[in-house]
Amino acid sequence: MSAITTTAKVRAVTGNQAVALAMKQIDPDVVAAYPITPQTDVVQTFSQYVADGAVRAEFVTAESEHSAMSACIGSAAAGARTMTATSSAGFALMWEVLFVAASMRLPLVMTTVNRALSGPINIHCDHSDSMGGRDTGWLQIYNEDAQEAYDATVMSFPIAEHAAVRLPLMNMYDGFIISGAIGPLVPLSDGQVQAFVGEAPPYKHLLQPNDPITVGPFDGLHGWYFEHKIAQNRAMEAALPVIQETYDRFAELTGRRYHHLMTYGMEDAEVALVVIGSAAGTARSVMKQLREEGIKAGIVKIRTFRPFPTEELARVLSGVKAVGIMDRADSYGAQGGPLYLEVLAALYQRDVQAKTVNFVYGLGGRDLFPQNIEDAFRTLEAAAGGADLPYYRIYLNMKGE
Amino acid sequence: MDWCTEGTPSLVTAPVVTRHPRALESVATHYCPGCGHGITQRLLANALDELGVRERTVGVAAIGCSVLIYNYLDVDFQELPHGRAPAGATGIKRARPDLVVFTYQGDGDLAAIGTAEIVHAAARSENITVIFVNNCVYGMTGGQMAPTTLVGQRSETCREGRDPKLHGYPVRVAEMLATLDGAVYLERVSVTHPENVKAAYRAIRKAFAYQLEDRGFSLVEVLSPCPTNWGMTPSEAVRWIDEVVSRYYPLGVIKDCAPVHFAHLLEHPPAESPGAKLHGFHYETVAGPEADESGRLTRPQQPFGRRGGRWTAISSKDFQPESRPESGSQAESGGAAGSAGDPTPEDP
Lengths: 401, 348
Ligand SMILES: Cc1ncc(C[n+]2csc(CCOP(=O)(O)OP(=O)(O)O)c2C)c(N)n1
Ligand code: SF4
Ligand SMILES: [Mg+2]
Prior knowledge:
The structure holds 2 protein chains of 2 kinds.
Chain A: E1 11-14, H1 15-26, E2 30-33, H2 40-52, E3 58-61, H3 65-77, E4 82-86, H4 88-103, E5 109-114, H5 128-132, E6 139-142, H6 146-160, E7 169-174, E8 182-185, H7 190-197, H8 225-254, E9 261-264, E10 271-275, H9 279-292, E11 297-302, E12 304-306, H10 310-317, E13 322-327, H11 338-349, E14 355-360, H12 370-384, E15 394-395
Parallel strand pairs in A: 2-3, 2-4, 4-5, 5-7, 6-7, 10-11, 10-13, 13-14, 14-15
Antiparallel strand pairs in A: 1-8, 6-12, 9-11
Helix pairs in contact in A: 1-2, 1-6, 1-7, 3-4, 6-8, 9-12, 10-11
Chain B: H1 36-51, E1 57-61, E2 76-79, H2 85-95, E3 100-106, H3 107-113, H4 115-123, E4 129-134, H5 164-167, H6 173-178, E5 183-190, H7 194-212, E6 217-223, H8 227-230, H9 234-248, E7 252-256, H10 262-267, E8 290-291, E9 297-299, H11 329-332
Parallel strand pairs in B: 1-2, 1-3, 3-4, 4-6, 5-6
Antiparallel strand pairs in B: 5-7, 8-9
The complex binds thiamine diphosphate, iron/sulfur cluster and magnesium ion.
């Protein structure tokens, strides 16, 4: 996969190339990774930049994702700006150390290109990897397309390194659908990115041999483990406004304005779908058609998933009669997929009275057709008119019974 | 189709040179032209046929280009995550010692992400056969540098060629495993020219025969062309193995020994440990405890044994440590194994 240069205005690039370009422009100190489809060419393209001398980064070809993330933890603890990328099984193999990174408050930045988990073995998109990792203590931002993924990558360090936050951050986008498909990208100049990202604020809890400390020590029954965990949650809460401020600062630079939730047609919506990732594009186009028919349809796209924007979500959904929550991952034995559970909790807690139903779609890369979205909206329409909704999930585009 | 004349109308009256192995499915291959996986799997099928074990063989498939091996071999397969095949094979073999169990792994799978599993399967001398297909690259993900990539070899993540200053040196898996007492048979072969292919076949068959004899861990490392990711034609790739790769990874038997019996290790200095036969590389110590100048054992190993297995269990009573500290010091040191000269702690 060839690397791209940074001069023209709009470029046609894959999602992975877009993110590799952002990584190049950030020029982190260390990148450690192990290849896995569909992430591979993020790091591979970056390694081309390394080979070309276009970046100063130290590039480590680790022997596994577990080691890659451990190397990242080491370098971040030593004060280096550190990035990596993974997918699926690689993400799962990092599991143990993802928690360590978050609890050590190391502002790592990772690209997670969403892919299904085994088994059966499947290389295509769904969100089981990063959704499974939603409680690792990492900030999670889901992106719809290459532009969003690029922008999110540029915005990552200012969020993760913010003194009130100090948490690792992962950016997601859909494997193949976004990672491999070519779409438009308006990149910033290297100088703009460098200025936006800026210098990392100083942080004292890092390895510094002249004043020895231990990062991530033992903390047993009589220690402060519990409080440590509470502090992580406080940092998550603090991240919500920091993320929005960073989005706003980015908008001043680029005109591209982001929010935790992106809403479409929600001003007067009676039926709404809550989506995450690339499905938002399909959902939006169907919504527009239905609006022409007079159906008051709306879309809420969730970008910031950790921390979860509860307040904002409850606000945009208040007044909606029926809400469908679209999950590209399942939570076996639970009431519904992870997004569903999250949204339901937010609505209940903020006393928003809307009928809800969970649509599970796209597992292992199963297509999501406009017709599936239309069916979902029609189900919601019927519910808004009084029909009952099932307690159990509705699977979209399922084969057989 | 196969070159087999059997079953085809006898327009040609040539003699049968080879038969389609029973253990090989008659399907089109998905491997690239010139890929070594196809040849290796064919040899594997031949070996299973010849030993007559097809119906009691289980393969453990790895992640890599050979992930679809179950489409080609007519035996049961267990698919496991990247690198974990030897651990899975251990489970299968322990549960069903009557089965013939093998793993089929690439160099990324075995020598990168699965290093721990292969080392410990060998150390435990699991009675399994490992077919290790070394093509010096992560083939399936598109040709990134592997731990086995040669110095100077270009890959997607070392565009100027592997540079020892940046990437260190390639891992010689068979030689590395040879240092483990548990590894019984290790041979490196290649699937380039007919002579080499025949030798590869003999090695694979032997590795399975050893399993049938309950000898313990064996591994055949197959140097295998990956023309696609090497950016070569199939014939160039073959030449590259013969002229370059097999110079770094020498062909031949790396280790071929009878199961090491602990009692023998006590009687013989390691240099003459029975059955050990090493080629190409010099290992002062094949197995066993270290001897001081007088030949006495100063740092004994833990006696090992396997209930009902092929090892003779040796209790720690059989072993007389060189010197015991005066009473009391054992407790003070917590009884942990310490520096050379410490006695082996008693079994709890
Ligand atoms: C945990 C995990 N990390 C990464 C991958 C991606 N992956 C699939 S195959 C492969 C490399 C395989 O290389 P090798 O074992 O040498 O087999 P070859 O394709 O060369 O035969 C990688 C890195 C994965 N499937 N799982
Ligand atoms: S990429 Fe290489 S290892 Fe994979 S099938 Fe092709 S030639 Fe064989
Ligand atoms: Mg390989």
